[in-house]
Design brief:
Elements: E1 11-21, E2 29-34, E3 56-59, H1 60-68, E4 75-79, H2 87-99, E5 103-107, H3 112-120, H4 123-130, E6 134-137, E7 158-161, H5 162-169
Parallel strand pairs: 2-4, 4-5, 5-6
Antiparallel strand pairs: 1-2, 1-3, 6-7
Bound molecules: iron/sulfur cluster.
């Protein structure tokens, strides 16, 4: 049981976690691979994450406890699968991560523009975008595969900092966006260059 009543027993459906990753964003990261993906990109390296009914459940409080225990972590990466299928529990996780002074990287198979449309109809999705320090957007496109790209699989995918997310979506999502400063330890000026 969580010590924080707000977290309660909030759970995520996950495919798995990697407790120390150096390939899922800048610095040492706790990577959470969510279960369920609607994109079905040809050549996807994580096909086990596609099923909406696969994986297992982990509590948000247990994930936060694992992050808290490792002082070397720069932050947490939410990958998949498609994280935006589970925005509500991921918001709780992202808020907890930021409260620990760590940053939040999110991978999505949706483009930023598609996420804007999604978030306009879903306050939890808008909130998750707002809590994102770095977004890697778009599906994996086999024809644009590039092994030299840091943190991405294909050239269509972009690395977008919080300022870029807000510049693109701020007006559209203004009713949902609160004033949240960048997470400690994350330099927004370096958002696009890991
Ligand atoms: S979005 Fe990611 S997890 Fe989903 S099919 Fe594409 S590459 Fe695989």
């Amino acid at each position: 049981m969580s010590e924080d009543p707000l977290l309660g027993e909030a759970c995520l459906r996950v495919s798995g976690v990697v407790e120390e990753s150096i390939v899922d964003g800048p610095g040492l990261r706790y990577a959470v691979f969510t279960q369920g993906c609607p994109h079905l990109c040809p050549g996807c390296h994580n096909p086990q994450t596609h099923s909406l009914s696969g994986g297992r459940f982990l509590s948000v409080s247990s994930l936060l406890a694992a992050v808290r225990e490792n002082p070397l972590l720069a932050g947490v990466t939410l990958s998949g699968g498609e994280p935006f299928l589970q925005p509500a529990p991921l918001c709780l996780l992202a808020e907890g991560v930021r409260a620990l002074g760590r940053n939040v990287v999110v991978y999505s198979g949706y483009t930023l523009e598609e996420l804007g449309d999604l978030a306009a109809a879903s306050p939890p999705a808008a909130r998750l975008l707002q809590l994102t320090d770095l977004l890697i957007d778009g599906p994996y496109v086999q024809a644009l595969r590039d092994l030299d790209l840091p943190f991405r699989g294909s050239r269509n995918q972009r690395i977008l900092g919080a300022a870029e997310i807000r510049a693109a979506l701020g007006k559209k999502l203004a009713p949902f966006f609160l004033d949240i400063p960048p997470a400690p330890g994350y330099d927004p000026g370096q958002g696009a260059s890991p």
